[in-house]
């Protein structure tokens, strides 16, 4: 008897997925069996059918067999009875010697049997190609498993107000296509694009969820839909999908039911995480203390095989997983049903609290890098814990966590968030004890970083007042440190140096090496920008380098940055570039975004000083992508000056274009761009003045020397320090082979006269 199973006819258009289709076609060229895996609703079947349609001309026939039909088809019935060999021979008899593609859909229903079937078919039919789909791993020796990702979402760098740019993402395009079908008058506009983006992001780019959501546009706006999804996505859960009449909730419920009790428990417990998580995190939060590591690892592997844990990627030698939003909500629903939600949330809160406390010192100890990285990865979990603690009327716990996270708020470029949580908790806690005083000086510190100088002063005054009432010299030292930081950012170097040195000596008495380190670093920047102190820059370097030995990374990296900054201030451009590049190369894997930001910013200045203006513009853009966009005033003046020089050299349009290019580079591309900064001037855009090239800046300095200006006056005119001006003068002397400033003046007079004659 002859039979065929044709590809199913689709009633809706296929949207997007170009890169996925390309990858599947490449796999089919290299292997005869590919299994598309992924969670329910991710679009495996539709993608397989589309891929088969695109390559059908290469085959004599393309067949489609569903393993989950009701009632079962002939092949499925054989598989259910365990007659796998009979099923394989029945198919092989139809293939004969023709090139045939078989799409085997829904293998998760009978994954063991399907794995054997695929391997048997590959043996019996040398001309057969198999493209299968399954929610779980199919144990086939001859098949390659390929996880189907969710549909692409708009990149974070694309402004949500740009409807045309956002619409290029597959998830948005699918929503628009299905919403237009449900309600032909629907359009994606700059008014609703942000809501559509939020909705598709909330639905993780899962095609089935997006299609179900789009169907409701005939009755409500996108904003109304967002407001009414419900905590467990009830609006979508109760809507039936087109294929097999299953609801989204039923699909997930079936997956949960297929899991063992231990797998179900781990899935539910892992739902407490807000974003990605790794095996170490699961062991710390989701299982009982003392559980066997091997058993936990096996459970994790099984949940990965079932497409419950998805989005695998390696980060710092660890594999990260994630639960899709709706899978996470399902897990929490199960925890609530079992009455264990609060227990798991409390374990999660204790874990975040302990991690924050361990990381509170300024990157001290052998675990400093890993803990800092872990806090960055779990930033969303931090915010969730703070919110829950506040809702539970525990403002003291919120304050302790937020204070311990002082460095994290800075590194994560989230100073404003830290200020918000401390301020909110203080309103509920009151202002009377040491905890409140610590919260206030921490708040002042973050406010200085965030550029809110007046607010910082208010917090600092209140903290000093409590320090006096509590007779706490340590709180007073913290206030001195923050005050020194604030005055440095205001370019008041005299007061800054005094406050920071006072804080350092107090920290020395208390034995707080972490705080000593911070105070010394800021004091070093003060000295590099013209301040004075009893401690020399060399002494500070020695202290910092010595403390860096504790972890073998922090001190040395920051010493390089500090030396690079000082060299730039002295006009030693090449030395500055080398030091900053050393710092950047050393810190690139440490997730210290602030020091990377400052390295990029200063390297943009270096490029400007060398007249490498195109590179400078890209570096300015890269720095903007890394930083919170709020430089201290002492650095802001220099930033504005160098950016103005770049814009004048390239023009506004070219400069803006290159800055945008820099913002779009990923982290590794940014580092490579900065580390590739040349040791010489390649642009050929410097002003020439005879046998030796001078940069535009050096020509400016030379002209001011010719006018009889002192180094201090040159610095004031060009908005640089006197030390930097002196460095430029020395470079002009060296390049021209001069021994005195009068020779510079004579040469400038001759040079200008020659230019006037040429113009005439």
Structural description of this entry:
This protein is mostly helical and 760 residues long. Helices cover 64% and strands 5% of the residues. Helix 5 (111-124) links the parallel strand 3 (100-105) and strand 4 (128-134). The longest helix has 19 residues, at 341-359.
Read across the widest sheet, the strand sequence of neighbours is 2-3-4-1-5
Q: Rg from C-alpha positions?
A: 32 Å
Q: Which bin fits the share of residues in helices? A: 55-70%
Number of helices: 39
Mean pLDDT: 82
Query: Ends: how far apart?
Result: 100 Å
The low-pLDDT segments are 241-245, 548-553, 678-691, 754-760
Oligomer: single chain
Class by helix and strand content? mainly alpha
Instruction: Report the count of strand segments.
Output: 8
Largest sheet: 5 strands, parallel
Beta-strand portion reads: 5-15%
Shape, per Cα inertia axes:
globular
List the helices and strands and how they pair.
Layout: H1 18-30, E1 33-37, H2 44-55, E2 61-66, H3 74-80, H4 84-95, E3 100-105, H5 111-124, E4 128-134, E5 144-147, H6 163-166, H7 170-182, H8 193-202, H9 207-215, H10 222-227, H11 234-237, H12 248-258, H13 261-270, E6 277-278, H14 279-285, H15 293-305, E7 310-315, E8 318-322, H16 325-338, H17 341-359, H18 368-377, H19 379-391, H20 395-404, H21 406-411, H22 415-429, H23 434-449, H24 453-470, H25 473-489, H26 493-510, H27 513-528, H28 537-548, H29 554-569, H30 573-587, H31 593-609, H32 613-626, H33 633-650, H34 652-663, H35 667-675, H36 696-706, H37 711-718, H38 722-736, H39 741-759
Parallel strand pairs: 1-4, 1-5, 2-3, 3-4
Antiparallel strand pairs: 6-8, 7-8
Helix pairs in contact: 1-2, 3-4, 4-5, 7-9, 13-15, 13-16, 17-18, 17-19, 17-20, 19-20, 20-22, 20-23, 22-23, 23-24, 23-25, 24-25, 25-26, 25-27, 26-27, 27-28, 27-29, 28-29, 29-30, 29-31, 30-31, 31-32, 31-33, 32-33, 32-34, 33-34, 36-38, 36-39, 37-38
């Amino acid at each position: 008897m002859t039979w065929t199973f044709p590809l199913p006819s689709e009633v809706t258009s296929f949207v997007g997925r170009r890169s996925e289709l390309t990858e599947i076609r490449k796999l089919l060229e290299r292997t005869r069996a590919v299994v598309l895996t992924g969670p329910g609703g991710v679009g495996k079947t539709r993608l397989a059918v589309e891929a088969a349609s695109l390559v059908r001309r290469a085959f004599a026939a393309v067949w489609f067999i569903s393993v989950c039909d009701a009632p079962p088809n002939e092949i499925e019935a054989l598989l259910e009875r365990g007659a796998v060999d009979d099923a394989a021979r029945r198919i092989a008899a139809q293939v004969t010697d023709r090139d045939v593609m078989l799409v085997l859909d829904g293998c998760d229903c009978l994954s063991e049997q399907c794995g054997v079937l695929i391997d048997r078919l590959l043996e019996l039919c040398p001309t057969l190609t198999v493209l299968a789909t399954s929610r779980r791993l199919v144990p086939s020796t001859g098949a390659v498993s390929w996880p189907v990702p969710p549909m692409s979402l708009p990149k974070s760098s694309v402004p949500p107000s740009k409807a045309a740019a956002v619409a290029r993402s597959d998830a948005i395009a699918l929503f628009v296509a299905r919403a237009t079908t449900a309600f032909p008058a629907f359009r994606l506009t700059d008014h609703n694009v942000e809501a559509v983006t939020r909705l598709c992001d909330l639905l993780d780019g899962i095609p089935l969820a997006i299609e179900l959501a789009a169907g409701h546009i005939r009755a409500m706006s996108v904003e109304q839909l967002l407001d009414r999804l419900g905590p467990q996505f009830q609006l979508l859960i109760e809507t039936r999908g087109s294929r097999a009449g299953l609801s989204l909730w039923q699909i997930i419920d079936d997956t949960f039911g297929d899991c063992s009790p231990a797998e179900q428990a781990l899935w539910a417990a892992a739902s407490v995480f807000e974003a990605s998580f790794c095996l170490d995190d699961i062991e710390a939060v989701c299982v009982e203390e003392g559980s066997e590591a091997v058993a936990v690892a096996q459970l994790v592997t099984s949940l990965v095989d079932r497409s419950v844990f998805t989005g695998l990627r390696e980060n710092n030698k660890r594999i990260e997983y994630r639960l899709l939003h709706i899978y996470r909500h399902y897990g929490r629903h199960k925890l609530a049903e079992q009455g264990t939600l609060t227990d798991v949330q409390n374990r999660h809160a204790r874990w975040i609290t302990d991690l924050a406390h361990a990381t509170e010192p300024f990157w001290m100890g052998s675990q400093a890098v890993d803990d800092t990285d872990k806090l960055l990865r779990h930033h969303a979990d931090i915010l969730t814990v703070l919110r829950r603690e506040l809702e539970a009327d525990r403002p003291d716990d919120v304050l302790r966590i937020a204070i311990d996270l002082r460095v994290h708020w800075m590194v994560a470029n989230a100073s404003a968030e830290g200020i918000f949580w401390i301020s909110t908790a203080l309103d509920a806690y009151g202002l009377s004890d040491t905890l409140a005083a610590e919260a206030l000086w921490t708040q002042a510190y973050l406010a200085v970083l965030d550029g809110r100088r007046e607010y910082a002063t208010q917090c600092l005054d209140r903290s000093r007042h409590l320090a006096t009432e509590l007779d706490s010299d340590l709180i007073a030292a913290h206030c001195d440190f923050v005050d020194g930081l604030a005055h440095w950012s205001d370019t008041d170097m005299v007061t800054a140096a005094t406050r920071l040195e006072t804080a350092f000596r107090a920290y020395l008495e208390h034995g707080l090496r972490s705080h000593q380190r911070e105070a010394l670093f800021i004091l070093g920047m003060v000295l590099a920008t013209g301040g004075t102190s009893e401690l020399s820059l060399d002494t500070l370097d020695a202290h910092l380098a010595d403390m860096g030995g504790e972890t073998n990374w922090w001190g040395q990296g920051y010493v390089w940055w500090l030396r690079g900054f000082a060299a730039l201030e002295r006009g030693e451009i090449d030395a500055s570039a080398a030091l900053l590049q050393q710092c950047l190369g050393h810190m690139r894997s440490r997730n210290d975004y602030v020091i990377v930001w400052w390295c990029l910013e200063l390297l943009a200045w270096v490029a400007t000083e060398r007249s490498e203006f195109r590179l400078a513009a890209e570096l300015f853009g890269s720095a903007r992508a890394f930083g919170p966009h709020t430089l201290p005033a002492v650095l802001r003046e220099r930033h504005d000056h160098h950016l103005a020089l770049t814009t004048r050299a390239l023009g506004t349009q070219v400069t803006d274009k290159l800055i945008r290019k820099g913002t779009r580079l990923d982290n590794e591309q940014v580092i490579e761009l900065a580390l590739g900064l040349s040791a010489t001037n390649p642009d050929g855009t410097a002003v020439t003045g005879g046998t030796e090239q001078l940069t535009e800046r050096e020509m400016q300095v030379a002209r001011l020397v010719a006018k009889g200006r002192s180094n201090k006056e040159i610095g004031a005119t060009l908005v640089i320090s006197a030390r930097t001006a002196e460095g430029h003068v020395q470079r002009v002397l060296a390049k021209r082979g001069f021994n005195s400033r009068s020779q510079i003046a004579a040469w400038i007079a001759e040079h200008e006269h020659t230019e006037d004659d040429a113009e005439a």
